Amino acid sequence: MKQLKLKFLLSSLLVLTILGSCKKDRIEDGSGTEPTAERQGIYVLSQGGINLNNSTLSYFDYDNRAFTFDQFNKVNNRGLGDTGNDVQVYGSKMYIVVNVSSTIEVVNARTAVSIKKIDVKNGTTARQPRSIVFDKNKAFISCFDGTVAVMDTASLTIDKYITVGRNPEGMAIANGKLYVANSGGLGWPNNYDKTVSVIDLTTLTETKKITVVDNPGSVVADQYGDVYVLSVGNYTTINASMAIIDSKTDVVKSQKDFTSGSIAISGDYAYITKWDGTVQLFNVKTELLEKENFISDGTSITSPYGVAVDDISGEVFVTDAKNYSTNGEVFCFDKTGTLRYRINVGISPSKVVFINK
């Protein structure tokens, strides 16, 4: 989910998406593996409305071109819960972060059949999980109570919680470290956090905090060891910004005003959505903006909400939340920015993940 002011205005349900984009040499930090198989299809997570308990996980099968609107409900005979915030595949399992319900749904990645539903709570108090990343058989889950949960992906149990900053959001891994954006989103309108916590993945301890612009949310890493942090600012006097952190030194090497929404990196390029319906193309090797709009055929997107790139096909997927209260769409573009197809999905579609055969 995006920054708090926007998120808590949204509703969302389900969506679906698919492949997307080029690839580059990768720093060997254990944060992922190169794709080795062709895709089976894509899942789309739609958030649904806050307190409406209507998040959905939809599936699009490439072989038969079949779309199942709520695959999770179909195979498990129950809903996902309230406000699905993130979904990622790790190994044979898929992990779905459900924020308001304060749960992690672990499912079979090929079928979406539930393996385990995990409560993320402090006693009876919801921790409100937000985002999830993986490293060496550990899952790391940012929680709005100011912690990062550490889950063993074999036993599917949470081993510990690491204290970070206020209301952490997105995370990324680079050079054996976990970078966590501390948004302070619950401090709206003028008491945001403006730090990125650095966690050593060997000791599982926070080693420092890096100062960025107020209200950081999205975090991604490129293959060159740089970590990109998008901050929203305070919506009035402090502008949105993009900080680039050198993970070798943990120093902010660049920070500039940069209006943006979601970001995905593939190869030498970052694809960054803007609220005006465009998708910026940023070269992470040269650290220069190459195109104000990657979309080359005039396709109009009302409210870009999420972006994903398929490293195998080069396709770029952009989710459109429309008005955040009715069903949205997923747009699939080829690597030149030309629309290939679009799919009607659920309310506030935000995440797309790719499934291998």
TrEMBL record:
Q: Which residues form a coiled coil?
A: none
Instruction: Cite the InterPro entries for this sequence.
Output: DUF5074 (IPR031815), Host-pathogen_enzymatic-act (IPR051200), WD40/YVTN_repeat-like_dom_sf (IPR015943)
What is a single Pfam family found in this protein's UniProt entry? DUF5074
Instruction: Name the domain of life.
Output: Bacteria
List the protein's name.
Surface layer protein
Organism in which the protein naturally occurs: Arcticibacter svalbardensis MN12-7
Lineage, top ranks: Bacteria, Pseudomonadati, Bacteroidota, Sphingobacteriia, Sphingobacteriales
